[in-house]
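Hi V.,

You were right to ask for the full record rather than a summary. Here it is.
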Amino acid sequence: MVGLKKHNFTKFFILIGVLSFFYLPILSLMIFSFNDSRSLTSWSGFSLQWYQALFENREMMTAITTTITIALVSTFVATVMGTLAAIGISKSRRLIKELVLSVNNFPILNPEIVTAIGLMLLYSSLNIEKGFMTMLLAHIIFSTPYVILSVLPRLRRLDPDIAEAALDLGATPLQALWKVIVPMITPGIISGALIAFTMSFDDFVISYFVSGNGVKNISILVYTMSKRINPTINALSTILVVIITIVLLVVNLYPYITKKEIKEAE
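Predicted structure:
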């Protein structure tokens, strides 16, 4: 019994150590975003001046707007394209399916720097001026494979007779897709959309190589500001952490709340 308690204490200590290693730097960043001085190591008092400076910084607000716009648009397009592609792959013959999946895995397995240079050379060879649209297209390209891989497992568990039954009952192929197939694979679609949004929002390497004409997202802006102390980065990071935490809580608690309401209604 004593040995078991000691073993459990050791596992608990290791768990606390791992969590501290991952989250203490983020917690420190959030605390010093309210620091009254520019120091990132010594506390001199509570202040909201860096949040005020963040919202007054036109360059940073432009970067935030660009990042959110590209992330939302690329997520929407990649989710639609990836879902339709996954449905098409699931209905294909085995040889075609394996071939398409192998091609789909290239952007995921390739280092980002390879994809970035490839896209940069493609735009240059086609004489496409780099800017907002080239960054948006690049984000759609590298996000779509993740959506496909998220939706396919749901499609594999889907009973093919359900769609055929809908067609037999008079539904058109589009109605069968929208009213039967899509609702049953919605969790996979949501997972793919969240991954696509995160990948787009966080991307630096590919964005850096395909952007131009002063177009910057948050990652590029932070990189250009990293060589000098700027506490507004802490304020921006704190806001992002809070937003992501709220989104994760909503996504994880919503199914639980929905199930609880259904049980109460029954």
